[in-house]
Design a protein that fits this description.
The protein is α+β, with helices and mostly antiparallel strands. It contains 10 helices and 12 strands. The site of fe (ii) ion (FE2) has 4 residues, from helix 6.
Length: 473
């Protein structure tokens, strides 16, 4: 069966049909490699670890169900797109939707099929290079700023690639209920990786749409009617501090950068009951916030000067007041909605102006660890932050906007990245970036937890990033 180089000779490879054979592992080995002569029991090329059911309850069946759900979500997110939208890349930091769809597939092929399937041969030999993001241990990645130039493979060819790899992963998962722990953990990692890219796909698309004078909408907003915000009498929530534990406990999935769990000492502190709103930012602007160097870090002030910043990203003054670009197109700014698309520099300057500061990531996590992960995530369909309401002591801790912390992204004490190329996932970025917490209105709810550490450069503001004030008691 032809499974290689489907585009070189113009013949699309036949899809893999599942046929009931006596030995499913033989079947995988033969079909995945297109080798019907030397079929033999599947033998992982690397140690696939112990059977993986005792600690977490995860089985091949549960992973397969997650796999189908997450992979289908990526396709569903693209339903509103026109064909021309799939190749958009408006700046070097963003990627086209088509590239996200291919790269997430590349991840499963590179880190599951290649190492664990005997003599596996890639779907297309060029894809190893084209859709490698930053894994130097795999090979030299294709130039990131030029991803938008990849008009080929076409969208339909990338969709074919997705279907082929999906079928192979599911065949692998269906082949045995005793797959090793390493395979299942790597597939689970690939699913969380794909959820990260689902969020990036939307944030990148928003940026690309924004530079188009037509200001196209991704889809109509399902934003509910405006809500009256009831400010509590005391806008601060107090915490005692002391020696606290931060980091993942080892129950359920986490990225390696959330480990190891360790102790930290916190002085008593307060967090604001809600993130900063648009009206708060307007007050900062009205008080000359973008014109006062004393409020800004030196690098931030340089950026303000260089790029002539006077407002958050996507904001535009009109004759009828401020408007901003959203995934539903350009709309009037709603004053009490939570503010987003602020850089770390803007968040830090705002906090200084407000006679407060940003929380450390340990403070944020300590406050969040007893709270249920609930809020405005991608499943609400709003794709924009809501108005914070006083439903709990800390409103919008999860969802709506990623909250900048004052913590630089660095390894926890005792942190060790995984061996091999997959160890490049997080560890090598632990320099010059800042930690954000809590997820956003375009995050998948199942992807977010109190210990999750997101990270971006201080100048970045195309993510759904905002801030919550903190102060020492
Ligand atoms: Fe990636």
């Amino acid at each position: 069966m032809k499974t290689q180089e489907p585009f070189v000779d113009g013949i699309i490879a036949e899809p893999l049909h599942r046929e009931p054979l006596d030995n499913e592992l033989l079947d995988i080995d033969a079909r995945v490699n297109g080798n019907s002569v030397t079929a033999k029991p599947i033998a992982p090329a690397v140690d696939d670890g112990d059977s993986y059911t005792a600690a977490t309850g995860l089985t091949p069946a549960t992973i397969a169900a997650q796999f189908q759900r997450v992979r289908a979500n990526s396709i569903a997110l693209c339903e509103p797109l026109e064909l021309e939208d799939y190749g958009l890349q408006a700046m070097a930091s963003t990627s086209p939707p088509k590239w996200h769809l291919a790269h997430t597939t590349w991840f499963f092929e590179t880190f599951v099929l290649v190492p664990y399937i005997h003599n596996y041969q890639r779907w297309h030999p060029a894809f190893e290079h084209l859709f490698n993001s930053y894994y130097n241990g795999i090979g030299t990645p294709f130039s990131r700023p030029q991803r938008g130039l990849l008009s080929r493979p076409s969208v339909s060819e990338v969709m074919e690639y997705r279907r082929a790899i999906d079928e192979r992963i599911l065949t692998l998962l269906e082949s045995s209920q005793t797959l090793g722990r390493n395979i299942l953990e790597t597939i689970e990692l690939g699913l969380h990786h794909e959820q990260q890219h689902q969020e990036l796909l939307l944030t990148d698309l928003k940026y690309s749409f924004h530079v188009n004078p037509l200001q196209p909408a991704y889809r109509a907003s399902r934003r509910p009617a405006e809500v009256t915000q009831a400010e509590p009498e005391d806008p601060w929530v107090a915490f005692e501090g002391g020696v606290v534990e931060v980091g993942a406990e080892g129950q359920g999935f986490c990225f390696d950068n959330e480990t190891p769990r360790h102790r930290q000492y916190l002085e008593p502190f307060c967090l604001a009951w809600r993130p900063v709103s648009n009206s708060d930012v307007l007050a900062f602007m009205a008080d000359g916030g973008y014109q006062r160097p004393e409020l800004w870090l030196a690098d931030g002030w340089d950026l303000v000067q260089r790029e002539r910043l006077t407002a958050p990203l996507y904001w535009q003054r009109s004759d009828n007041g401020w408007r901003h670009f959203t995934l539903a197109g350009q709309v009037p700014l709603v004053a009490n909605q939570t503010a987003c698309h602020l850089s770390y520099y803007e968040a830090d300057a705002y906090a200084r102006w407000a006679w407060a500061r940003l929380p450390t990531e340990a403070e944020w996590e300590h406050a969040a660890k007893s709270q249920v992960v609930a809020g405005n995530f991608i499943d609400t369909g709003q794709c924009h932050p809501d108005v914070a309401v006083s439903s709990s002591p800390l409103a919008q801790l999860f969802g709506d906007v990623w909250e900048w912390t004052s913590s630089s992204y660095s390894p926890y004490p005792g942190y060790a990245p995984a061996a091999g190329a997959i160890g490049e996932y997080n560890g090598k970025f632990m320099c010059n970036q800042m930690v954000l917490r809590g997820g956003s209105c375009v995050s998948d709810r199942a992807h977010i937890r109190a210990t999750y550490r997101n990270f971006f450069y201080p100048a970045d503001r195309w993510q759904f990033s905002g801030l919550r004030l903190a102060r020492s008691r």
